[in-house]
Amino acid sequence: MSMNAAAPRRRSQRILLVDDNPENLTLLSALLDLRGYSVFTAGTAEAAHEMISRQAPDLVLLDVILPGRSGYELCRELKENAETRLIPVVLITGLGEPEDRVRGIEAGADDFLNKPIYAEELYARVRSLLKLKEFTDELDNAEAVLVTLALGIEARDPYTGNHCQRLSRYASDLGRHLQLDHDDIVALKRGGYLHDIGKVSVPDEILRKGSNLTPDEWKIMRQHPVIGENIVKPLRTFRAVLPIIRYHHEHWNGSGYPDGLKGSEIPLLARILQVVDVYDALRTERPYKPAVAHSISHDTMLQEAREGLLDPDLVHEFFLLLASQEKAA
């Protein structure tokens, strides 16, 4: 083969625009054409569904207000179908109420765009989701998927630093300390990266607020474990991680979410991730709080265990582990 032979051209990524307003379709098509995407359009949910069944796009930009079936309904249908659930769906809405976002999250939307749409925001969200789609298409390469999802998490919140990497290390170290089997330790390592992947659907203004959330904002935030579980569920090699993702916000006394599990009802791996997550949150500076010293973190977590928020035995074992690591250093 000649060294001068041209490399094969990469396939243009296919984007389906769904909107009943021809002006919107023309504008968005022109913007995306400029970036080299292959753009297809539909004016109704029914027409879009037919196009997707013939050839799946790489991304769907979906207006929520459509004649006939709404964008919410089409999004839910796509996400409930095993053949289409991995297609990223961005809901485009002029509706600004929190309940509208909750409805979109419940339908399984991967992201949102608010009207009026700004070109740079459009490009950034499309580029990010298409990059994620490239890797989720390679389901056999689980590690590539893991790294991509982890980068997606940390990119949403620049203040977390290497939070996912630290949790992965803490959780797997604690698993080894507890003499768990290899598969559980691998699940903990992956869970450190993927536990909060559902926050991809939480708006930045809520995610970065950190505290004093309103009831509507809490309703959105409390959806992220379920959304994260649904995102990762198609990855067969990550089945052991699903309980970590869904249950890492449950509390020992049953006051957590999303299912209100209590005590040993909460899977052990989820309890482990929760303990190390709390420790890292205390030890990390955030916009709304300073970092806390190790000794104060120890006392705080013991108090939370006494109040029924954390598994007291795991808190004890985690600090034994940290003490042994400090001695060995």
Give the arrangement of secondary structure elements:
Elements: E1 14-18, H1 22-34, E2 38-42, H2 45-54, E3 59-63, H3 71-80, E4 89-93, H4 98-107, E5 111-114, H5 119-136, H6 142-156, H7 163-177, H8 182-194, H9 204-207, H10 215-221, H11 224-232, H12 242-247, H13 268-283, H14 294-306, H15 312-328
Parallel strand pairs: 1-2, 1-3, 3-4, 4-5
Helix pairs in contact: 3-4, 4-10, 5-6, 7-8, 7-13, 13-14, 14-15
CATH topology of the largest domain: Hypothetical protein af1432
Please bin the fraction of helical residues: 40-55%
Uncertain runs? 1-9
Q: Please identify, by name, the CATH architecture of the largest domain.
A: Orthogonal Bundle
Shape verdict: elongated
Termini separation:
54 Å
Q: Mind summarizing the main beta sheet?
A: 5 strands, parallel
The CATH superfamily of the largest domain is known as Hypothetical protein af1432
How many helices? The count is 15
Oligomer: single chain
Average residue pLDDT: 87
Side-by-side strand order of the widest sheet: 2-1-3-4-5
- In terms of DSSP E residues, the strand content is 5-15%
Q: What value does the Rg take, in angstroms?
A: 22 Å
Structure summary, number of beta strands:
5
Structural class: alpha/beta
> Which CATH class of the largest domain is shown?
Mainly Alpha
Q: What is the N-to-C succession of helices and strands? A: EHEHEHEHEHHHHHHHHHHH
- How many domains make up the 3D coordinates? 2
